[in-house]
Amino acid sequence: MTGAPALVVIGGGPRGTGIIERIAANAAELYGGLPLDIHLVDPYPPGGGRIWRQDQSPLLWMNSMAEDVTMFTDDSVLMDGPVRPGPALHTWADDVREGRTAVDAGPAVLREIHALGAQDFPSRRLQSVYLRWVYERAVAALPPGITVHAHTGRALRVSGPRGGPQQVRIEGRAEPLHADLVVLTVGHLDAEPDAGQRELSAFADRHGLVHLPPDFTADTDLSALPPGEPVLVRGFGLAFVDLMVLLTEGRGGRYENGAYVPSGREPVLYVGSRRGVPYRSKIGYTLRGERPPLPHHFGADQVAELAGRTGPVDFRRDVWPLVAKELGHAHYHRLFTAHPERTAMDRGDFEEKYAVAEPGSAELAALVASAVPDPADRLDLAALDHPLDGVRHDSFDALQDALRAHVAADLERRHDPGHSPDLAVFLGLLSVYAQLTGLGDTGEHWHGFFSYLASGPPGPRLRQLLALSEAGVVRFLGADMTVETDEEQGVFRARGTTVPGAYTEARALVEARLPDPSLRTTRSALLSALHEEGAAVTGTGLLSVDPADGRILDREGRPHPRRFALGPYTTARSGGAFTRPRTGGPAFRQNDATARTALAFLRDHSCRDHLTA
Predict the structure, then answer these.
(1) What is the pLDDT of residue 441?
(2) Which of 19, 14, 79 lies closest to 602, judged by CA?
(3) By the 8 A CB rule, do 324 and 381 touch?
(4) Is 588 strand, coil or helix?
(5) What's the average model confidence in pLDDT over 362-370?
């Protein structure tokens, strides 16, 4: 457009905004007033992108309290670029309410913003307004000569030699965009069904049944699920919570005095999963007093040692023991400092012995047993992860009572500051996730464990689940849920191990989980083409990137000089959709490193062009 160097950012959601914000923050130091065209490509409006777009049900909430969501850096972020502070979501809402900040939003969303408290769970459409404001602020902060051009469309392909300009083909556009650098921030991916899902869909087609494969619940057509009919639901995480909301309140049901009043248009949801229980509730209090020092037993030195090994690193064998020791450190540090009356050993003596004990050893178990008299105060990660292991019930009715008791106990504990070591473990999980970005693909076990403990639903959602269970709209199937097909009867059949021998039949099956973030099964033509052309992909299908700055690696391990990628489909994915203030924010660190590398490259490229002109 102007003859200036061109940077194409593919993906206009929060990550794309984060890259623009870091370019604005670093440009004065690294770019020296040179011109630059930034082309932002996304089929959805910039800021929210697809997942956080305004055009979705107001019943769908964020999974974090307003005070735990920020798009701005602070001095807890370990990065080379400057801190550019800004308001967290609840502070921004205060500014809107007091007239200090103007936003473009309809009356209904403005009412939500004006009513938002720090510990409320905002709707996703409210978050979309915040993200749009952050995007516009980031663009406005760019120095003169750096211009953003937004393109509404889907990027289909990136081509070009390693040592030369790149071309970005956009759906519906005749000519490609020319780019000196490309940064992929495309977010979550749609996926083609695997062989098992295809078989289930084919079975459903043969018998006139309904099978809904893994998808983003907000984008799924749920009209095929008839009122009053049983629906098997496989998956008990956040996708299930969205499904539960849209099929109950979304169909006219309501809550009165804690009880659910059906509309009569709800199906009956029979839900199960591998664990058989919902994700743990979001913690409903803030940490007061001393924070655990993190990282402590699993930091940069341990990651460097693991990354430097000549052989493959096995997560369960090599990494998990260190992770468990780090989480234990966070737990017991908090127990000794905040609840010393529940300990039976001098804190310094315990910490000294804990530091040298081998992770997972009998020595460590004996130390904890002697220092912490009540088993309820000890950290048992295996019991947390699989609460129904070995649990058996004689009937489905007994299982319903037991699962309601489990959820109620989890809600009570996660809202009781007397159990504040739980919040310390949460902070430990965030710290561990930040360190693991340096190890590449750590497999699905860690990601699932983190999501289960740290990314559970808001407490009010679990209270709604209890009410729906009492009303008979939700029924629990237990752990190790499997689904079979009966060709003779033409039905799906589900069973679990918690009620031996029992099963449930239905004519509808919903896979309540997100599609796998795998380049091998993605529907993204853009990422499929990168894979086909030689980008390295891990065993689980993640795109391999340099952990230092996000450059895409080829199959020989060489970083591409002109292509970067950030997000959940890469080996540098970070935990959580958004960053809590003052928690280090590995996504911020990644954004900063990518932006600085890009600016230095573009600066040198621009200077060479100027000298040869």
Answers:
(1) 82
(2) 19
(3) yes
(4) helix
(5) 95
Element spanning 167, H or E: strand 166-170
Beta carbons within 10 angstroms of residue 346's beta carbon: 12
Q: Are residues 147 and 242 in the same domain?
A: no
pLDDT given at position 140 = 98
Between helix 586-612 and helix 421-436 the angle, nearest 10°, is 30
Same domain? For 32 and 126 the reply is yes
Q: What percent of the chain has pLDDT over 70?
A: 98
What distance in Å separates the CA atoms of residue 121 and residue 61, rounded to the nearest whole number?
6
Q: What is the Cα–Cα distance from 80 to 547, expressed in whole angstroms?
A: 15
Q: Give the residue from 92, 82, 100, 73 showing the smallest Cα distance to 17.
A: 73
d(Cα 377, Cα 379) in Å, to the nearest integer? 7
> For residue 233, what is the domain's CATH number?
3.50.50.60
Give 405-437 pLDDT, tens digit per residue: 999 999 999 999 999 999 999 999 999 998 988
Collapsed DSSP state (helix, strand, coil) of residue 214: coil
Same domain for 186 and 69? yes
Does residue 613 have a pLDDT over 50?
no
Q: To the nearest whole percent, how much of the chain has pLDDT over 90?
A: 89
Start-end of H helices in 455-514: 459-470
Residue 580 falls inside a structural domain: yes
Say yes or no: 21 and 131 in one domain.
yes
- Taking CA atoms, 603 is separated from 39, 365, 552, in Å, by 17, 56, 20
What pLDDT does 608 receive? 60
Does the structure show a pLDDT above 50 at 1? no
Strand pairing category for 508-511 and 551-553: unpaired
User: Could you tell me if residue 396 is inside a domain?
Assistant: no
Query: Do residues 561 and 499 share a domain?
Result: no
Q: For residue 346, what are the domain limits?
A: 300-384+414-444
CA-angle at 441, arms to 212 and 188, nearest 5°: 35
Q: How confident is the model at residue 575 (pLDDT cuts 50, 70, 90)?
A: low
pLDDT, position 2: 60
Neighbour-count burial for 132-164, b at 16+ CB within 10 Å, e otherwise: bbbbebbbebbeeebebeebeebbbbbebeeee
Q: Tell me, yes or no, whether 521 and 505 share the same domain.
A: no
Q: Is residue 75 part of a domain?
A: yes
Same domain membership, residue 75 and residue 184: yes
553-558: average pLDDT = 96
Question: Domain total for the chain?
Answer: 3
Distance CA 318, CA 255 (A): 48
Whether 393 is covered by a domain: the verdict is: no
**pLDDT at position 18 over 80:** yes
Residue 36 shares a structural domain with residue 156: yes
DSSP 579: B
Helix extents (H) in 415-498:
421-436, 444-454, 459-470
Tokens of 255: 């809550």
